[in-house]
Design a protein that fits this description.
Layout: H1 3-8, E1 12-16, H2 20-26, E2 30-32, H3 35-42, H4 48-61, H5 65-85, E3 92-95, H6 104-120, E4 128-133, H7 136-147, E5 152-157, H8 160-169, E6 173-176, H9 178-189, H10 200-214, E7 220-223, H11 229-234, E8 240-243, H12 245-252, H13 278-286, H14 289-314
Helix pairs in contact: 3-14, 4-5, 5-6, 6-7, 7-8, 8-10, 8-13, 9-10
Length: about 325
């Protein structure tokens, strides 16, 4: 077996793309999207009919220009999600507007509407994960939505504090960003690379995985945002990994042996179980310079891509 096939035997592989053809090529279990990926997908010729459909639908709903654009974007994300679901057996992750990252009530309302739009497309909520940035407000929105039976994917996760708070909130899944952590440490320490086993992103996800398993949390750990296959290989055995088509292709072309590195049955965390309230969360997260910078940057970047999508749709 190639390394992609070996990885699938120990980890649920998720496609990190909005491109249906890529999903069909690699046959992952699940798929994830975000504003950046929806923007790329919306420019593909194969999706132009969905763009037109979204515009027409939103216009028919009425409202002012802002409401029409909001409806257009949500409808487009949902119809792209529906297309991808036709090619996978599992779930699609669809993201709430990143501009709501610090508003719990608005995040909950937007998530409910996304689920409603999927239902109108004949897609049940058990095939959808709502992606929300892992701010304190976003994590609390996740808590509320989970209590309503709407499963969530807490994204832009960089700190141990975020991971602890997500587990306490009972969210379905977290997406710690491996590659972006590596980016920060390379720049901060002025180094070109780290050995795969010492990659700061790999170390972070390994710590979170072991903490969850040691303390009996059901929240799924899904490593995300990879820069190279070495990071992926060092997390073989993680609950899930969401991987770009380029890196899946590299794994599929490699016939070397892929050992399992993470194992829930053997997990041994050095971290005692924490109980974080809001003040405790904010302090612990604030102590991590990398995490505070990358969370803020991630929200800004997703927002810029959301704005680009809206400008494209408006034109």
């Amino acid at each position: 077996m190639n390394k992609l096939e070996q990885l699938k035997s120990m980890t649920t592989v998720v496609a990190d793309t909005g491109d249906l053809s890529a999903v069909q090529s690699f046959q992952p279990e699940d798929a994830t999207t975000n504003p950046s990926l929806v923007l790329k997908a919306a420019q593909l010729p194969a999706y132009q009919h969905l763009v037109s459909e979204a515009k027409s639908w939103a216009k028919a709903q009425g409202g002012d220009a802002n409401q029409i654009m909001e409806n257009t974007c949500d409808y487009l994300a949902v119809t792209i999600g529906k297309e991808i679901l036709s090619a996978i057996p599992g779930r699609i992750s669809t993201e709430v507007d990143s501009r709501l990252s610090f508003n719990t009530e608005a995040t909950v309302a937007r998530a409910q509407r996304i689920i409603e739009l999927y239902a109108q497309q004949g897609i049940s909520k058990d095939r959808v994960l709502i992606k929300i940035a892992s701010t304190w407000e976003g994590i609390q929105a996740g808590r509320i939505l989970e209590q309503q039976g709407i499963n969530c994917n807490l994204t832009l996760l960089f700190s141990f504090a975020q991971a602890v708070a997500c587990a306490q909130a009972g969210v379905y899944l977290i997406s710690p960003f491996v590659g972006r952590i590596l980016d920060w440490y390379k720049k901060a320490n002025n180094v070109d690379a780290y050995p795969a086993a010492e990659d700061p992103g790999v170390v972070s996800v390994t710590r979170i995985f072991n903490y969850y398993k040691q303390h009996g949390y059901a929240t799924i750990v899904m490593g995300a945002s990879f820069r190279n296959t070495g990071e992926i290989e060092q997390l073989a055995g993680c609950d899930r990994l969401t991987i770009s088509p380029d890196l899946m292709q590299q794994l599929a072309q490699d016939t070397g042996n892929l050992p399992q590195v993470l194992n829930s049955a053997l997990a041994n965390s050095e971290d005692s179980k924490l109980d974080l309230d809001e003040a405790g969360f904010r302090w612990l997260h604030n102590e991590d310079a990398m995490a505070t910078e990358k969370l803020a940057e991630g929200i800004r970047n997703f927002t810029r891509d959301q704005e680009k999508l809206e400008a494209m749709l408006a034109s």
